[in-house]
Amino acid sequence: MWAVDQGAARRAIYQDVEADSGALAVVPHLFLPGGCSATFEALLNKLIMMDTAGCQVAAKFRRGDRAFINRMIDSRAGRYFFRGESGLLDVPYAAIRNLTA
User: Fold this and answer.
1) Percent helix, strand, coil in the chain (nearest 5)?
2) I want to staple 62 with a disulfide (CB 3.0 to 4.6 A). Which of 54, 67, 74, 90 is the partner?
3) Taking the domains of the chain in order of start, what are their residue ranges?
4) Is there a contact between 32 and 21 (Cβ–Cβ < 8 Å)?
């Protein structure tokens, strides 16, 4: 797993939105499929091209207070987490790379 910082990792894994500082960082190339750029649109298009089984886009909201947690692209190659509810140029704040892909 890669994340901007520990708070971003806590947001992605534990839904701890308050721990996230909102900081940005460059996603390591190791976590980007086929050298694509790190935007929501580029990742989604690349993952759809690469994976014949497709990929899933979802948004998570916390139960109880219904706080927005993240938007996520999930595929066999990995999972990418975005802070914004929409936006094609959003960049991931965390990523999990599947080693079997």
Assistant:
1) 30, 25, 50
2) 67
3) 2-97
4) no
d(CA 5, CA 92): 12
DSSP letters for 23-44: ---PPPGGGSGGG--SSHHHHH
Considering only CA atoms, which of 35, 41, 24 is closest in space to residue 77? Answer: 35
The pLDDT of residue 101: 52
Residue 53's pLDDT band, with cuts at 50, 70 and 90, is confident
**Side chain identity at residue 20, one-letter code:** D
pLDDT value at residue 52: 67
Q: Is the CB of residue 84 less than 8 Å from the CB of residue 98?
A: no
